[in-house]
Specification:
The structure is a homodimer.
Chain A (H helix, E strand, L loop, with lengths): L35 H23 L6 H8 L3 H7 L3 H26 L2 H6 L1 H9 L2 H12 L4 H28 L8 H20 L4 H18 L12
Helix pairs in contact in A: 1-2, 1-4, 1-7, 4-7, 4-8, 6-9, 6-10, 9-10
The structure holds a DNA duplex (30 and 30 nucleotides).
DNA sequence: TAACAAACAGACTGTACGTTCTGTTTTATT
DNA sequence: AATAAAACAGAACGTACAGTCTGTTTGTTA
């Protein structure tokens, strides 16, 4: 862990150590005129990752800016430079997570056949949503009720996601020679909700096996609602 | 001695020490001596209701003790007398909610035939879980990750609920001449999770109709998983 | 190179929060 | 009645938080 056990007095014994002739602990022997764009992006990513970790571990109300800064091993100053207010960081988290999740989905689309992909959808959703980043988004969603700015932003992002996500699924279904149910959107929403609920429950219950069983049930249900996607079915009356 | 601050004493115009022969600020007329057990229970209930309302409306981190006291129209002093710490109140909320919810379920069991009850289960679950009290419990669940005492208490209560709840369902199924599926527990958990997820989503999306559609899908799924419970559609189409 | 701007570091501050404390009113007990 | 205890009221307190500020280092540009 990390010690934050420093006396508040000026411990500035003689800290004038700049321009080290030798880079000590950093990249060895390689001079690095790191562009500031890179530096910015680095600390931003560190902060976002740390925020996600904290949100998933201790929840929103216990995720203080100081805690995030420590987790990210970033100074308070650097943090406020990149994200002046806590909200700015939370907003960045939401955007980053949705970006990454979209990438994740896109990858699974690319590497699987349409039929296969649909079959695996519940498991894929579970992979994405039950991760810390998924929990973090839930936390921010809930906390956004006391913050209009955050709520508005979240809503717009969410709307985008929902539309494109269901659009994808419809396309995939058609690629597999299927058509969506008339209540396809409700089904989709139900599945997302179920996965969310399960990941919530997994938060403070160690029963991972039980939760995965429920995901399996969800897969089975998918197979029933969209019969042709079931694992074994080529002929039937 | 501590009378140093009366900067804005508009109410307390002059001295104290009066034993007014006429009760001026007293409640209108008939003031029967309320037993203190009743008084205690009243303010406790007011506080619990207010806490539920606040949790559901603004979330845990924005639910301050002051806000709850105002919502309950109870003085800070009375509040701390009943619940010395914030945690005490949160614990009380959890217990009260589970008590009330159990009562709700029991009532629906009593007034419906077994078959009917099973059919309506998703809707009943939605009724219970999507209420403010259901949201409040979710909020406390999430916040409990940064508070061991709360987490432990919650876990034990939850464990009780889960066992008795599934037990009930199995009994109901048998009353209807059905047997549970081997993965019945996973199904049950999945349904609870789905309802929770849906109610979460309903929090910051006004689309109540859409959510109810998803609940309907859930009912349909229940009918498929437990065929005999499906609504008999003798002559429809 | 110099001058500037961006990135960083960390102390400082106002405030809002949960808790504690002192004092008052209401009910119970004798 | 007197006395004690419970319920209530609200000020006072310490603290931890988010936001701000001043100063330093590092990269960019003229």
């Amino acid at each position: 862990m990390k010690k934050s056990n420093e006396p508040k007095a000026a411990v500035r014994t003689s800290p004038r150590k700049q321009v080290p002739a030798k880079p000590l602990t950093k990249k060895p022997s390689r001079r690095k005129p790191k562009p500031q764009a890179q530096r910015s992006a680095d600390t931003r990513n560190r902060l976002i990752d740390a925020a996600i970790a904290c949100l998933a571990r201790v929840g929103y109300s216990a995720t203080t800016v100081t805690l995030v800064a420590e987790e990210a091993e970033v100074s308070r100053g650097a943090m406020t430079h990149q994200y002046p207010a806590k909200n700015d960081l939370m907003l960045a988290v939401v955007e980053a997570v949705y970006e990454r999740d979209g990438e994740h989905y896109r990858r699974t689309v690319a590497e699987k056949s349409p039929m296969r992909w649909i079959q695996d959808l519940p498991a894929t959703m579970w992979d994405v949503i039950s991760q810390p980043s998924g929990i973090a988004v839930i936390e921010i969603m809930l906390a956004s009720r006391s913050d209009r700015e955050l709520a508005d932003k979240l809503r717009s992002v969410q709307r985008n996601i929902d539309m494109t996500a269901h659009q994808w699924i419809v396309e995939r279904l058609e690629s597999a020679g299927l058509r969506d149910r008339p209540d396809g959107e409700a089904v989709h929403r139900l599945f997302v909700a179920a996965i969310r609920g399960l990941s919530l429950e997994g938060l403070f219950r160690r029963d991972r096996a039980g939760v995965e069983k429920s995901v399996a049930v969800l897969s089975e249900i998918l197979g029933i609602l969209y019969p042709a996607t079931a694992v074994r079915s080529s002929s039937q009356s």
